[in-house]
Amino acid sequence: MKENRINKMRKNFIVDENKTSRNKEKLSLGIERYVAISEALNIWKRAFIGMSIMTISFACLSTFLFINKSETKSYLIKVNNNGELIGTEKLSNQITNIGNKEIEYFMKKFIKDSRTITLDRKVFDKTIREASYFLNKETQSKLSSILSNENVYSFFEIGKTREVEILSFVKIPESENTYQIRWREKEYEKNGDLSKRKNLNAIVKTKRFSPNSEQIIFNPFGIVIVDFNMQVEN
């Protein structure tokens, strides 16, 4: 192998036939040294490439293991009406520290999300999906029936909107996990004129459950509405 390389290298050098054999021997020795250096450089080159590949592979493996071992922790931040921090709690599958204020917040949010209609149908569909995290199968079916009977999707076709204002939220005495919510709805035509105004109320019964990793994002307290009855006030 080495002799073949030496013979090939000879073609790159012009040898004067009048040179002595001693000079030719020196030339051959120089070529041999050149080939040896070239082979050594190739060995180091292959070693460098191999080490680079190993280093990159190790870095990728370390990153993968770090990502998989990393744990994302979510916390619930509680504030008062002035926006001042009053407490924090780590989100888990079940938060035990829950009072009427937390239930009131999420029930009001449910009413506003499920009753407000903007000009953007995608926003409405998104809020209805988020509201479904507070419902079981029976109450989801009831909400779908209400939306269908009201033909809410016609609002988007003609450019109407509906605004919701929460009026009150009270716990019904001697009824476990049962609340009454009152709110006012205003409907506006495409040109902005007020076309309808009405007050409504709903009796809502709730219970607790352990939310999964998807549900806990929208419903961290695990509050589910198991029954509700909505009616228009006179």
Structure description:
The chain has helices spanning 2-10, 21-69, 100-115, 121-131, 137-149, 153-158, 215-218, and strands at residues 75-79, 85-90, 161-171, 178-188, 194-208, 223-232. The chain is an alpha+beta fold and 234 residues long. Helix 1 crosses helix 2 (21-69) and helix 3 (100-115) packs antiparallel against helix 4 (121-131). A hairpin with a 5-residue loop joins strand 4 (178-188) and strand 5 (194-208). The chain contains seven helices and six strands; from the N terminus they run ααββααααβββαβ. It is 46% helix and 25% strand. The protein is elongated and about 120 Å long. The strands form two sheets. A four-stranded antiparallel sheet has the order 3-4-5-6, with helices on one face. The protein has a two-stranded antiparallel sheet with strand order 1-2. It is found in: Membrane. Keywords: Membrane, Transmembrane, Transmembrane helix.
